[in-house]
Design a protein that fits this description.
Elements: H1 3-21, H2 51-62, H3 70-90, H4 98-115, H5 120-147
Length: 156
């Protein structure tokens, strides 16, 4: 990874963590009902390989504040890594928006059930709904900007 890619990865990590930990946004970032605006940033993984490790790192940093502790730091980051790696392979097309909904929609409830003893299927519904809401709004707007060429990778 060259220095520009490393820097972009750092920006993705910082942006994801900041959008999750920010006062006013952090209240719904953890638990059974999740609404992380930062999940919209996963769209950048469809066109920028630096977003893949960057967003996984950002998730790990954001999950330091999770009530599920270190397990969420590791497991949550792995879920994000899987989701954005698949999104990168799908590319900047609308089906990519479904990947985090499915990966996190089924992965996070496993954690919630094992650690917080919350019921699995209602957690699947709530987490998936939150992911879908973000990706079908913020994600769709960013995907449209990417597809129209409003956002491009820097050359050099």
């Amino acid at each position: 990874m060259d220095s520009r890619s490393l820097a972009r990865g750092g920006v993705y990590a910082a942006a994801y963590a900041a959008l999750t930990l920010a006062p006013g946004l952090n209240g719904l970032a953890y638990g059974q009902i999740q609404f992380r605006v930062a999940e919209g940033l996963t769209v950048f993984a469809t066109v920028d390989p630096a977003a893949v490790p960057g967003l996984a790192l950002g998730t790990a940093i954001a999950n330091v504040a999770s009530p599920m502790g270190v397990v969420d730091v590791i497991y949550g980051a792995l879920l994000t890594l899987v989701a954005v790696a698949i999104m990168h392979r799908v590319g900047p097309r609308w089906p990519a928006l479904l990947v985090p909904v499915i990966v996190n929609g089924f992965g996070v409830p496993v954690e919630l059930a094992l650690i917080l003893h919350l019921p699995f299927w209602p957690s699947v519904a709530w987490v998936s709904l939150g992911e879908a809401a973000v990706l079908l709004t913020v994600g769709m707007i960013l995907l449209g900007a990417i597809r129209r060429g409003v956002w491009r990778l820097p050359h050099g």
